[in-house]
Design a protein that fits this description.
301 residues, alpha/beta, Rossmann fold, 7-stranded parallel β-sheet
Length: 301
């Protein structure tokens, strides 16, 4: 199945359901995929019942406003394509080739103008949602899209001695206070089509729009930053082992040799010793990182 949403779609009489997970995806990891696939699998029965088109897309950005640099977009896009092979997930490149910084508020406004009658959902982790008041017009995102927020924590798990309502209340309290009134437990509210009379410039905060759904299911708390740091750490450790490298090699040659010596993903998966890369990265993405020497010590010297 193609995994880009730039292709033409057949006309559907019912408004579509479109969900987007934004990020730098530097690199894309299994936590990203878990959130996006969870949304797709949850919404698919609703979309089928209502005879509506469903699209769940990864939305890579050019560079996050909170970061100084990021890996070349062509590499991040290539890894996304590998990670989404044989999945129903799509890739939307609308932010990727823009001059950074690119702000989420601008993207959701563009999406709302492009799809005025569709149900639009923006997916994020609670670690991002709790800081929306620090984003550019972050509290205004719900003027244009609904939010689906995941419990993305290191110790994200249900306490067997607690009620589900306690967990929901705890998560709700983490959102910026101005957004808390827009929380809903109803997925039907989240996917309600936009009002037909709305113009392209209208905001959508009414009883069926601008809603926030908090999904208490825990997802992997790994971050792309952790993956990059661990890859970098592996390379640095090998670089600092003089007995493994001839003195005549320069730093570029050493880095290339060390990256080439990283354990293949198949060996990692078959090994009984725990290895975070097997849990965090799609095997094809891991191999791509090795082949293109991404996140190596040579990049950080």
């Amino acid at each position: 199945m193609p995994n880009t949403d730039s292709r033409l779609h057949k006309q559907n009489p019912q408004p579509a359901i479109r969900a987007y997970l934004g990020g730098s995806f530097d690199p894309v990891h299994n936590g990203h995929l878990q959130m996006a696939l969870s949304v797709y699998q949850t919404l698919l029965p609703i979309a089928n019942r209502q005879q509506r088109e469903l699209q769940v897309s990864l939305l890579p950005n050019a560079r996050s406003p909170f970061k100084d640099k990021s890996t070349n977009p062509k590499h991040r896009l290539a890894m996304l394509k590998l990670a989404t092979q044989d999945t129903p997930l799509q890739i939307n490149e609308m932010e990727l080739w823009q001059a950074p910084p690119v702000y989420t508020i601008d993207s959701v406004q563009t999406l709302r103008t492009r799809y005025p009658n569709d149900s639009l959902i923006f997916i994020m982790g609670m670690d991002s949602a709790r800081g929306l008041d620090k984003w550019k017009e972050g509290l205004q995102l719900t003027d244009y899209v609904n939010l689906w927020v995941f419990n993305r924590e290191e110790n994200a798990d249900f306490n067997k001695n607690s009620f589900e309502g306690d967990m929901h209340a705890q998560l709700t309290s983490q959102l910026p206070v101005p957004l808390q009134p827009f929380i809903t437990d109803s997925l039907n509210e989240l996917v309600a089509p936009a009002s037909r009379h709305l113009t392209d410039n209208a905001i959508l905060k009414n009883k069926t729009q601008g809603r926030i759904y908090i999904d208490p299911r825990p997802v992997r708390a790994v971050s792309s930053t952790q993956v990059r740091q661990l890859l970098h750490q592996q390379c640095r450790q090998r670089l600092q082992s003089p007995q493994q490298m001839p003195q005549s090699l320069n730093i570029k040659q050493i880095a290339k040799t060390q990256i080439a010596s990283l354990q293949p993903i198949n060996a990692i998966i078959s090994s009984t010793a725990p290895n975070p890369f097997a849990k965090w990265l799609n095997p094809a993405v891991y191999q791509y990182i090795i082949a293109h020497q991404l996140y190596s010590a040579a990049q950080f010297r």
